[in-house]
Amino acid sequence: MAMQITVNGEARTIAAAPMTPLVEVLREELFLTGAKQACSEGFCGACTVLVDDQPVAACLLPVGLVEGRAVRTVESLGTAGDGLSPLQAAMLEHDAVQCGMCFPGILMALTGLLERRPNASEAEIRSALAGNICRCTGYERIIEAALAASAALRQPEGATP
Amino acid sequence: MAGSANGGGLYLATSLPDALAALAERGAAGAPMAGATWIMRRPDGRAYVGLSRIAALRRIAVEPDQVRIGACATHAELAAALADLPECRVLAEAAGRSANPSVRAVATVGGNLCAHDFAAADLVPALLCLDAAVEVTGPGGTERLSLADFLAMRAGLEPGRVLTELIVPRQAVRSAHTRLPLRVAGDYPVAMVSLAATVDGGGRVEAVRLAVGSVEPVARRWPELEERLQGQALDPDSVAQAAKGLLDGFQARDGVEVPGSYRVRVLPALVRRAVAAALA
Fold it and tell me: What is the pTM of this model?
C-alpha cells in the first residue's frame, strides 16, 4: 500500500515496503543520493537526515514510521548556484571537507543543531557530532567552521562583526 | 513479500487496544515495535505492530512520589523530562549520553528494556539502581513486575503482551551513571556502573544500590559491594578498593572489542568515578 511522506518540502508517494530503511528509499526510489548508507547500524552518521527537524539515522528508521512526516536531506540545503547556507559557506571557507562521504550527514546533524540552538557552544557542537564519524579531517576544522556558522547566524543580517 | 528482509509488514497502531488487537490477530508471526533502532539492525521479516504513535505510551508524568514513563518515550525525551529532578540524575545521564543524538531521538525506553540480546543498554543499570518497576499489558490485563523480574522473563514474553510503562520511585538519593566506551563518541560502553545512595549526616552510607551493565549478558545489581558499603564512608577511593576485592562473582562476556576480563578489571575505576560524581 502506497504511503505519503514529505521530502524536502514536496509530498511524495512511496512504493517501497514499510520496513525498508528510509535511507534506501531516499537513494533508490527518490534518487536523493546525498545521504549515504554505510554502517547500517546507527554508528557512522553518514545517513543522517532531519525528520520533523530532528536529526535521525535514516538507516535504522523504517520508512513506514515516517508516514505523514517531513524529511529534509542535504539536497534541501543551498547549491553553488542558488547560494550556500551559512553552514555550508563556513565549511567551504574553513576548507573543512575532504572525501565527502560523511559530509551530508555532518551538515544535517549541524543544521538540526543550529536551527534549534543558533548560539550553540563548542561543547554542544561536539556533542551533536558524537554520531558522525569522519576518517579524513580529524574534526577540528569542522568544529571551527560550525562555530563560525553559529557566530554568523547570531549576527544580524548585513551587520559587521 | 512475506519472509523477505523488508516484507514482513508494519501496522501503525493508533491506541493500545488497537495494538493489542493487531498483535492478537498476528499471533506468533507478529511483534511489537517502537523506535525500531534495534530491530532494524537485523530485520527478520516479522509482522510488526508499531507502537510509537500511541500518545498515551509516550507520556512522562512526574508525580509527587514517582515518575511514570511511557514505554515509547524516547531517550532524548526522557533526558529532557528529568533534567530538573536531581534524584533521577542517574537515569537522566544514562538517557542523555547513550549512543548518539540521532539514535537518542528515536530509540525508546521500552525498546531498550525489551532488547534482551543487547547487553550494553544504558537505561537498564540506571533503572535497576533506582528500584524501578515495569507494567506489562496484554489480553489478560496489566501486570506490574520489578525490573529484575522483567529482565529474567523478557526473552520469553509472548508477542501479544507489551511493556507499557516504567515506574520509578522518587527517593532522596545521590546518584550517578558512569560508562566506559573505548572511543569517547558514540560507542557502546564496555562496562557501566550505576549508583544510587543515601548517606547520613556523617557521610556514611544508609542505603545503596549499585548496578553493573555491559559486563554480563544482562545488567544486574552488585549485592556483595552494596552489603560491604553499608554504614561505611561514601568515599571514592575506599569504595573502589572494596570493589577490587569483590570481582569474583562476575561471569563477563567476551566481545570483539574487549575480552571479558577487561570489563571486570575496569569496574573498580568506574565505581570510583560513580561515587565521585554522585558526591559532586
Answer: 0.94
